[in-house]
Amino acid sequence: MFKKTLKTLVPIALFLSLSISASAATWLPVADNTDFGSDSNISGPGWKSAAVFEGNLIIGLENTTDGCEVWEFNGTTWTQINTDGFGDTNNGATVAFHVYDGDLFVSTSNSVTGLEIWSYNGTVWTEATQQGTVPPGDGFGTSENINSGAMTTYNGQLYVGTYNPPSFGVTTGAELWKFDGADWTEENIGGLGFGDTDNQAISALLEDSDGHLLAGTTNGGAGAEIFEYDGSWSQRENLGISDSNNTNVDHFIDTGTSLYAFLRNATSGITVYESDYVTYDFTNIGDSGLGNSSNTIDLAATRFNNELYVGTFAIGNGTEIRKYTGSGTTWDLENSPGFGDITNWGTNSLIEYNGELYALSGFGQLIASSPVIYKMENPTVVPEFTTWLLVLTAAVGVGFIVLKRSKIKSPAQA
User: Fold this and answer.
1) Residues 335, 316: Cα–Cα separation, whole Å
2) Which is the most buried residue in 68, 193, 270, 339, by most CB within 10 A?
3) Residue 289 neighbours by CB under 8 Å, 6+ apart
4) Among 120, 160, 147, which Cα is nearest to 62's?
């Protein structure tokens, strides 16, 4: 286990200021590779690998050399809380986190033996996929289920969707498994991939405000689909109808009055749809990358201070944080692309911790993909004129930076 406090980094801090547009937020570093102890942590936090658990921020880091790492932040100190790769270097990354029945559940990416699900009670890790009367084992019995990017709780059970990529041959389609705290059961979804082997992943899961279990798919053929369960499974929407390049439902967000679906589109850019709970029709509220067609993947999405935020993947442009204005299809830019470094292509997770928004970034840099974690202080207490401060220097060579937002007075307040 590694431990390092932020205080030890103060002597090497470097401060820079940069004026930006009134719509953008302000961010400050929280951590870099010197906090996590290994330059092998090269690809940033795993996709959807962030959770608040027992009052601490928990993140997952990809490490294809030693195995994935899980770190805990208590507001001051970062501490590694797992053994590298959970004892298997083939577990190169964590993919999704979910808190179920008081424990933290983590899915790994493993292209050799198949994904693993681990649970953490705050002290001890247990390999959940090896538990039960008939343990399903790695990959739920097949090495072709290499990871899971979707977990949720429904009717008191943990649901896990798998990813079965065509790169392993002819995909058999995604699977859906459920865990009641003791045993695992494969859910009957009308055949693998909901009866369509092009549905290679169940990439988003959510219980909506009407009590339905929603499953969003990844489909490189006809485009992404949404299925719902209310005693039986049925297709709710085929969001690839208008554009088959809408291949992945990556996230759902439910506000109680509206449901939002976030889709990736490698051709024209990210698309976001909104559905109410009256007509259940989906309306486009953002497309073409939410203002920049380079934003092809919605790696992260969250609701913070009652506003929708998206963290993007943008090759050559630098990751962007976009915030929905609440009107039409307009999404404001909330950061400088790449947080000032256009080789920082992706923001993997967005999560609220202690009233502030954290952006876990650093995915897909040109030379060395390095974890980058940024913190944006509550925008409601920061005036429109804001300034970016680079508080910590990056490590030489492979490294990452974490920024947080500072409270800076506007000229009118000075």
Assistant:
1) 16
2) 270
3) 265, 268, 269, 270, 295, 296, 312, 314
4) 147
- For residue 391 the two structure tokens come to 């508080």
- Contacts of residue 124, Cβ cutoff 8 Å, sequence gap at least 6: none
Query: Could you please report the per-residue DSSP string of 321-373?
Result: EEEE-SSTT-EEE-S-GGGG-TT--EEEEEEEETTEEEEEEEET-SS----EE
Name the pLDDT band for 170 (thresholds 50, 70, 90). Answer: low
Helix (H) or strand (E) holding 34: helix 33-36
Domains parsed from the chain with CATH numbers: 45-360 (2.130.10.10)
Q: Collect all residues with Cβ–Cβ distance below 8 Å to 13 and sequence separation of at least 6.
A: 391, 392, 393
Q: Is the CB of residue 91 less than 8 Å from the CB of residue 110?
A: yes
The pairing of strands 125-127 and 147-154 is unpaired
CA 144 to chain centre: 22
Picking from 95, 120, 97, the residue whose alpha carbon sits closest to that of residue 109 is: 95
The pLDDT confidence band at residue 316, using thresholds 50, 70 and 90, is confident
List, for residues 230-256, the tens digit of each pLDDT value. 999 999 988 887 899 999 999 999 999
Specify the 3-state DSSP secondary structure of 36. helix
| Cα-Cα-Cα-Cα dihedral sign, residues 209, 212, 217, 221 | negative
Query: pLDDT by residue (tens digit) across 99-136?
Result: 999 999 999 999 999 999 999 999 999 999 999 999 99
Q: Cβ-count burial of 20 within 10 angstroms (0-12 exposed, 13-18 middle, 19+ buried)?
A: middle
Which of these, 121, 120, 114, lies nearest to 143 by C-alpha position? 114
| pLDDT reading at 259 higher than 70 | yes
Sign of CA dihedral 235, 236, 238, 242: positive
